[in-house]
Input
Amino acid sequence: MKLAKAFPYFLIQVVGALVSVITGRAEGGAVKAAEMAGYLLVPNEKVPTNYNAGFSMYVAAWPLLKQYPGHRFQTGLFGTWMFAQYAGQAPTNLYSDVEGGLGWWRDTRFPTETPKFIMGGVGPNFGDIANGPAHGRGTWDKPRGVYGVAQLSPWLLFPIDGLNLKQGVCGELFGYGYLPLPLTRAKATTGGKAVPTGDNCWTLFLNTENFKGPVAFFTPNFWARAALKEARFAGQLLDSRPTNPNRALQMETQYVPSVQAVDAKGETYARIAPTSFPRGAADDSVVVHQVTSYNRSALPDAVKVWFEGGPAADGAINPQGAYRHVFTGKGGATWRIYLPGTPKEQKTPLAWTSFATPTALDPHTFGYHWNFALAAKSDSQNGPLVTLPEYYHLVQSADKKPTWVPVRAEAVPSETGLAAERFTPPVEERQEPYTTPDEAGSCWRRPGPVAGPFKARLGDGSVVTYSWYRFADQPAILNADLTDAEREELQARVEQLHRHWQKDRDYLTPPALGKLAALDPALVMTPPKGLEAGYVPIATRQGLTE
Output
């Protein structure tokens, strides 16, 4: 999905300024820098609106591009947008949701060809953004999301730059979703003012090869605090609202490198960077599986009873509270190739269905069949792939509209120079480390950690420095607008979870097919002796190795 902070790409701007921006056919001769972007659409049947307590799904994780093309690259893999549900007309001029997912973003500091995961909470109209513990919009002095996510699991370290998958994933399924655990109580005030805060702690659950269960949650204050500035937001956000179960399901791509050139006859051709999809045993691609919406009987109700003195909830989803979406077998694509600066209405689409046919591989699995006369079977060192056609010819379609039609490399006139182009990663400056406040009086130091610092060396080449904090003393909770008594009640509830819910048993229903993706093994934790319940690992720095 999307969600990138602004990034100062002066080199990109310089290159863009040098590119002659035109529409229609490119001017003759020189190879021109271009790009490919758009959406892949995945229709699915609607479900009853009372399944409004979150969702889960399995999405394929794979290296979309053969080589990471630099920090201008931004694309999600398949994902969704979780919006609040309203009884009637939705409020106007209000955009707020949970998006995120697997992908690559311009503000990812330590990227590789392997995707990462961010949580992607969006406060009203992008005023606040929370991507994970200590990762979001704003600064430590003026936080606008950096304190929006609290770490819940004692068994998984969440890096500041995003959650790492094991390097080399190639089509394995990554299971994730959100359910509103009742960890806190609703409040009549926010920030000392008569603005309500709800009790929805939207909690990220994962199902991977080496970790299963709840990871982290958006604090209700992350949403509710927006109403301190605009009273109209009170009661309208995800801290207090259920979710709309009928969500869009798409793959959003904002930039893939491309080039264009014109031959001696004035015909325009394009080439894209090698772009691939996972390939299964039957040579098709499974990309989304078991999209499921929940009502509160799936898990939150049982947890609430438990916290109020009833029997312990085992954490497994109750299938009676789950509704699995059905794929229609249809699908769309808005991928386009164009020169920088081309107006939206003049961006030319690819003839996507000439080489990719969207299909329901079964009622709960969406994927693609491929035309291997145009797409190519390929193999990486980690698994089989399908590589999309690299070359395209700009033609007038039957409806007189321009279309990029795939062609073989040998059909592209040599004078275009496209065959000689190489999509090599640009030389970029070394990325700065993420740091957190170290002052003695900061919330990071008072009361501060109980063990550490320790270091975890990740597959992306970065090193995460982390310490163990008592759950209620982690910076996100200290900034969640909770009284000492409210924090201690929350601490007691989390200790119950830690004692009863382990990382190696199922919470989300397992997939009916495929293999689970693994997280970077360096992120899977064993709490220090004596800190097994009520303590969590918190990243305090992340930077490249020296």
The longest helix spans residues 484-500. The first strand starts at residue 32 and ends at 41. The chain is about 10% helix and 35% strand.
